[in-house]
Design goal:
Blueprint: E1 2-7, H1 16-28, E2 29-30, E3 35-39, E4 49-51, H2 59-71, E5 78-82, E6 86-88, E7 92-93, E8 100-101, H3 113-127, E9 142-145, H4 146-150, H5 153-159, H6 168-176, E10 181-182, E11 187-188, E12 201-204, H7 209-218
Parallel strand pairs: 1-3, 1-5, 2-7, 3-4, 8-10, 11-12
Antiparallel strand pairs: 5-9, 6-12
């Protein structure tokens, strides 16, 4: 199964997050085929399929669009979607990676932008008759089937001229996923220490030099996706 990353221009570390994420995949992922990078392409990367896509809209719409572009390419019929700041900390099978939720989504008054996107998505799903909307926003990989994800294009198209877009994870998860595991989100916030997670993954926030240094100690061998310096 292939893996898809979408990449913009906002890295504070010359895409060191992606470098470490790829090292973690090479070390721990079973049934890994090709790596697809949709968007920008770091100068140091090799042995990937790159599809250039420029960012023209808000962040969540840009990501949604790049996944749609991936689905229109020759990426595998089902693929694993990764963020560049996801690090796989133990062996796993890409084809069998579970779906994880944080629990049930709740409507948030006076929301942040992220919460505004979830509010919009939840309201739309409830209009379809889904009373209990699950939160698939856990910071870990998620498996997407191309045909099913492409059926969500109408939500991307509808949101282009709006203030905010939809959560692709929550749309897909609530419409197409029947079995999932509830687990504590594996994002490391603030001064969190590295810890084991049920997802087998950790995710980092911006400006987390201490965690990045620890990850370099764990994944100290360059992957086949890195050019020699």
């Amino acid at each position: 199964m292939d893996v898809c990353y979408v990449l913009g221009t906002g890295s504070l570390y010359d895409n060191l997050e992606l470098r470490l994420s790829l090292r973690s995949l090479e070390k721990n992922a079973k049934n890994l085929e090709s790596i697809f990078i949709i968007g920008e392409k770091p100068h140091w990367i090799k042995n990937v399929v790159h599809i250039p896509v420029k960012d023209n809209l808000t962040s969540e719409k840009n990501v949604f669009n790049k996944i749609l572009v991936a689905c229109e390419s020759d990426i595998s019929k089902e693929f694993l979607f990764m963020n560049d700041d996801f690090y796989m900390m133990k062996p796993f099978d890409i084809k069998e990676y579970p779906y994880f939720i944080n629990g049930e989504l709740r409507y948030i008054e006076n929301p942040s932008r992220y919460q505004m996107i979830n509010n919009k998505t939840m309201v739309e799903l409830q209009k379809m008759g889904i009373e209990r909307v699950m939160d698939f926003g856990s910071h870990c990989p998620i498996r997407y089937k191309k045909e099913k994800f492409l059926s969500l294009k109408k939500y991307y198209d509808e949101s282009k001229e709006k203030i905010c877009g939809y959560s692709h994870r929550n749309l897909y998860g609530n419409l197409f996923v029947n079995e999932y595991i509830q687990a504590i989100d594996c994002k490391l916030w603030g001064s969190d220490e590295m810890r084991e997670t049920e997802q087998g993954c950790i995710s980092t926030k911006d400006e987390c030099d201490d965690i990045i240094d620890k990850l370099f100690e764990i994944f100290n061998k360059p992957s086949k996706y890195e050019k020699s310096s």
